[in-house]
Amino acid sequence: MSRPRRKAALPVMLIVAILVAPLSVSAEDAIEKAGVGVGVSAGNVVLLPIKALSVFVGLAVGAASFVLSGGNAELTKQIWNDVTEGPYVITPEVARAGIGERPELQKK
After folding, report:
1. 20 or 11: which carries more pLDDT confidence?
2. How many whole angstroms separate alpha carbon 94 and alpha carbon 51?
3. Is residue 64 assigned to a domain?
């Protein structure tokens, strides 16, 4: 990818991440909301391209497994199910599940 094209891709990815970020966040004050929004958006900027690449590679590997295993549809279906299941975007709920419950935030 050429340098000007890479420079143009970054703002597009940031805009997409901001648009994908959830509008309602369940944090209490404005600073927490902003922090959660920035964290979720930054996470999505990283996760979305990786997830897309993972899905495309998984679909190709699943198709190859069908051919190489002599038509084993169960194996192919299992590979495709594993690579295509979500989550596709990070939401505050997904982030919260990743770090666990934090009682100090529940008290507010």
Report:
1. 11
2. 15
3. yes
CA 89-12-23 angle, 5° bins: 45
Count of domains observed in the chain: 1
pLDDT tens digits along 20-55: 666 554 445 778 778 888 888 888 899 899 999 999
- Residue 6 lies inside a defined structural domain of this protein: no
Alpha carbon 91 to chain centroid distance? 9
Rounded-to-integer distance, Cα 30 and Cα 94, Å: 20
CA 98 to centroid of chain Cα atoms: 13
pTM: 0.57
Decide: helix, strand or coil at residue 85. coil
Range of the domain at 76: 29-106
